[in-house]
Amino acid sequence: MSMSTLTPAGTPVSGSVEVTPPKPSSRAFSAAQLWAALPGALRKLNPAALWRNPVMFLVWVGAALTTVIAIAEPFLGGAEQSGGTTVPFGFTWGIAVWLG
C-alpha cells in the first residue's frame, strides 16, 4: 500500500522524495560583491562623513596617526622604549593595519 501526501501546491507525491538542500558557497564574499561595495566603503572614509560619528572619526584619526608613525619609525631611529621594554619591530604596523 502506497501513501500519498499533498504538497503545498496541491500535487500528490507518492513514496518518499529525497530533497537535497542547496550547497553552501565556500566563500563568504564574491569578487563581484566586493567590487560593488567598494565605492560605498570609500565614501564612508570621507572625513566630512566621519565627523557625524565621533567614535569612527577618532578611530580614523588614530589609524592615520599610527600609519604615519609606522612609516616614520625606521627613519627616526627605530622603536623606542615603552614601559622598560623595546617595542617589537612590527607592533606599530600591526596596530595601523588593525585600525585601518
Describe this structure in words.
The chain has 100 residues and is mainly alpha-helical. The strands form 2 sheets. A two-stranded antiparallel sheet has the order 1-2. Strands 3-4 form a two-stranded antiparallel sheet. Helix 3 packs antiparallel against helix 4 (91-99). 46% of the residues lie in helices and 10% in strands. The chain has helices at 31-44, 47-50, 54-72, 91-99, and strands spanning 4-6, 12-14, 81-82, 85-86. Strand 1 and strand 2 form a beta hairpin.
Summed up:
With about 100 residues, the protein is mainly alpha-helical. Helix content is about 45%, strand content about 10%. It has a two-stranded antiparallel sheet. A two-stranded antiparallel ribbon has the order 3-4.
The quaternary structure here is: single chain
The number of E-state strands comes to 4
The biggest sheet, with number of strands, parallel, antiparallel or mixed sense and barrel status, is: 2 strands, antiparallel
Could you state the order of secondary-structure elements as H and E? EEHHHEEH
Question: Strand-residue fraction?
Answer: 5-15%
Q: What's the total helix number?
A: 4
Shape: elongated
- Rg, Cα atoms, Å: 28 Å
Measured as a percent range, the helix fraction is 40-55%
Structural class: mainly alpha
Distance between the termini: 67 Å
Give the strand order, joined by hyphens, for the main sheet: 1-2
Report the uncertain regions.
none
Average pLDDT taken over every residue: 77
